[in-house]
Amino acid sequence: MHLYGTANINDYGNLQIGGVDTTELAKEYGTPLYVYDVALIRERARGFKETFERLGVKAQVAYASKAFSSLAIFQLMEEEGLSLDVVSGGELYTAVKAEFPKHRIHFHGNNKSEQELRMAIEHNIGCVVVDNFHELHLLEKLCEEYAVTMKILIRVTPGIEAHTHDYILTGQEDSKFGFDLQNRQAEDAVKISLKSKHLHLLGLHCHIGSQIFETTGFILAAQKIIEKIAQWKASFEFEPEVMNLGGGFGIRYTKEDNPIPPSRYVEEMIKAVQQEVEKYQLSMPEIWIEPGRSLVGDAGTTLYTIGSRKDVPDVRKYLAVDGGMSDNIRPALYNAKYEAILANKANEQHHETVSIAGKCCESGDMLIWDLPLPEAVSDDILAVFCTGAYGYAMSNNYNRLPRPAVVFVENGESKLVMRRESYEDLLNLDIPIIK
């Protein structure tokens, strides 16, 4: 059994997180329930941020809020001194309502609307990461209308894709994101930005993948980008103030995953950038990164109540829980793997292998296949680990299931940060045609 952060087994044999018994959380708040280990989030945030400080490199660590967005998580990231990466008007609105420092908000996305860009300008956020020529010209036009200057990064595709332990070198990047580094699109975008009276080009941004367990891809991306910057400096005297190397740092979901500490990612990235700028006699840029999953992913645990059971002789044993693809769609979308235990029988030996079914009316609503457990019965509490990223963020109301509640736990206390949806909430947007 692998336990994360502050999780342990208490004297009653129950799973405990943040000093709080998870079976008591299930009783108080109901299930399904997302439980976040605040101390682990703080530890991960400091692991990134303090490495930059220790090595004396100017930097920003921006939480990639698409992993999980809420007022409470934004306030927690602000407490830890992080910046914030948003990708929609809704995430920006949440950040504003959370009173997050606007100068530390970065706005991403490949199809920002005019309304969203106006929001960014009106709230005077810190930076817009420009993704394409349409957006570049639209943002310049809007900044001229408002008579303001907006700081921007140009997102580039460096021809590297990295996932887990694999990385791929490509020629022209086939991606919906960013300006290609090899076919002069990125260079043209840089030149347009430098000529603009209303855009302040801070530098370049790239993002090479997700769930990455090695530093090779980040190093190759830095090398390719800085090589191109050296050419641009020689031809039109451009040097970036900022180099944003994105996120994608991996976490452990199952025993097959072997992530590295946040400090190692940072150390290797800094070393690569320093070597390359020294090689080409360039100025050292400020380094920005964007961890999301690696900050909140394994800090989140989902609690379910077991309901029905179906034993198919010589085939499979199914246990159904009171959630499923409505609160964790990742297994159905891309066969994501998870580990789990019975929170109320955490010390007991495994006696059977079962498969965990969700309650949605879909045969593909399976959370975990072939999970070893103690003998499970109705009303046992199942704890599924590492659901803190893209669980609530991708939750939905399929089959008219209300979204679960979210609680933060720390130092023996729990705090409700997102209430459970009610059936009445499901009707908030409905307009009947017959009164």
UniProtKB/TrEMBL annotation:
It catalyses: meso-2,6-diaminopimelate + H(+) = L-lysine + CO2. Its EC number is 4.1.1.20. It holds the Pfam family Orn_Arg_deC_N. GO terms for molecular function: diaminopimelate decarboxylase activity. Pyridoxal 5'-phosphate binds at residues 248, 290-293, 390. The keyword Translocase does not apply. Keywords: Amino-acid biosynthesis, Decarboxylase, Lyase, Lysine biosynthesis, Pyridoxal phosphate. Residues 33-388 form the Orn/DAP/Arg decarboxylase 2 C-terminal domain. Substrate binds at residues 293, 330, 334, 362, 390. Pathway: Amino-acid biosynthesis; L-lysine biosynthesis via DAP pathway; L-lysine from DL-2,6-diaminopimelate: step 1/1. Residues 40-296 form the Orn/DAP/Arg decarboxylase 2 N-terminal domain. Its cofactor is pyridoxal 5'-phosphate. The modification N6-(pyridoxal phosphate)lysine is found at residue 66. InterPro entries: Ala_racemase/Decarboxylase_C, DAP_deCOOHase_LysA, De-COase2_C, De-COase2_CS, De-COase2_N, Orn/DAP/Arg_de-COase, PLP-binding_barrel. It is an enzyme of class 4 (lyase). The keyword Lyase applies. Belongs to the Orn/Lys/Arg decarboxylase class-II family. LysA subfamily. Specifically catalyzes the decarboxylation of meso-diaminopimelate (meso-DAP) to L-lysine. HAMAP family: LysA. Homodimer. This is Diaminopimelate decarboxylase. It comes from Bacillus seohaeanensis. The gene is lysA.
